[in-house]
Fold this protein.
Amino acid sequence: MAQSTPDFGLRPDLAVIARVIPDGSRVLDIGCGDGALMEALQAHKDCDVRGIEIDPDSVEKCVARGLSVVQGDADSDLAAYPKGSFDFVVLSQTLPMAKRPDLMLGELLRVGRQAFVSFPNFAHWRTRAALMFGGRMPVTRALPLTWYETRNIHHVTVDDFRELAREKGARIENSWFFAGEKPVGRGANLRAEFAVFQLTR
Amino acid sequence: MMSPAALSNVTLPADLSLDSGQALSGVSIAYEAYGALNAAKDNAILVCHALTGDQFVASEHPVTGKSGWWERMVGPGKPVDTDRFFVICANVIGSCMGSTGPASEASDGRPYAMRFPVITIRDMVRGLVGLLDVLGIERLHTAVGGSMGGMQVLSIAANFPERANRVLAIATTARHSAQNIAFHEVGRQAIMADPAWHNGDYYAAGAQPDAGLAVARMAAHITYLSEEGLTRKFGRRLQDRPDGSAGAKSFGFDADFQVESYLRYQGSGFTRRFDANSYLYITRAMDYFDLAEEHGGTLAEAFAGSKARFCIVSFDTDWLYPTSESRHIVHALNAAGAPVSFVELSAPYGHDSFLLDVPALDRVVKGFVG
């Protein structure tokens, strides 16, 4: 890995976010998991980072790491945060679990001046192929759980998300696409396993 | 009741102005300290005790001989590590283990009894801050407490925001609910209905309102446990008879069930270490507690000036101060922009979980204290 693109020991979508967020920002990480991104932003970017996580075991791990993480449900708890509380709000791999992703997107850009949203792309060719040729709900590297185990209730594609952002009047500042660890250039809706979007109101 | 003479305490140099508008002079604060205060005086942790707790957080109780009430949490190598931190735990005012309370002598040499002013949680905190002033501790590393101790640490954060860097509030609430007040009122009425209470003037008498105080404790104790915990511990099992024979229904009103026997034991044991009037005054202080009301009706306003990091912990089986109360605090802290962690831990013991074997709590406390 070149000096100019440190990955902070994070998976590719989080590494992009950690690189782009400027030093000293106020950040809310929704669905922060074990707090890896939060820790990187604190350690390398001197950010003031807060987290929301629904799983109590993950919250306990975060608190034990000295991170400020609140156990809660982003669907209901974002309402408690005042408008513009954060410079950046991060929603990594959590959008398909939201009850109403469209309302969630509005909340992200109310609470934060900018938002990062990352999600697995349901239109990746592997997913398409699994459904087309297998006739079964896809279980892939990007979507490793069966249809009955997954907490994703709103599968989404790169093009769907672009359309949603347009409808909600959110501006896409930047986007990044990955297949595994590798960046994807053109044809993201077919070739990307994961997408990261940077949005502003 | 023991004589408090043997306890280590300080007398506050200034009068304590109370929320009621009254003042207390010559206030004594009894405390225990563990570990050593460093030269920078920045390694002090204040542990705040619950309603019937005391300063003996990590040392043997002088009356009961039992080990400290939070020894699983406080000690060398424990989550609140006395090898690294100077840990202070003080008896709150209004209580009866050496700090000024209704059993203490007033200026006329007789016990205050009901002449003791009604105090609030904030008044207790004023006493604790007075102790910190005497000890020369400007800023606590952490203020930590469960139940009423949690109310005190929240009150410190709201009223003395510069006095604590970290605030850890466990199994607590920012206001007493109607249900909370109702249970306390049952306890107070039990004490005041005891003929030995004598309007609080029983200190010189041969008898004390032990029966009333025991009933108060029994009623309160039920609120500290979960139904599941009670069922698991006692179920409908019968108590062995005093002569050692196997338990059977007596067709009378002995403690046939183990749960009855347990509550009676809890009640009578409690009267040996606690003063009935203190129970009245401290439950009153808890009932008056409403942190938002003190700060213009908005809880977020209470924390507006705070620079501290917060950690709020609730337990899924605590129906006395349920998780919804903790969430209410967390939302206010979020609105105030305060750095806050919150976790609802799973434990079977109800409200008392904060005192019992819950390893996840140990990890959270250790992680937050750092």
About this structure: Confidence is low (pLDDT under 50) at residues 1-6 of chain B.
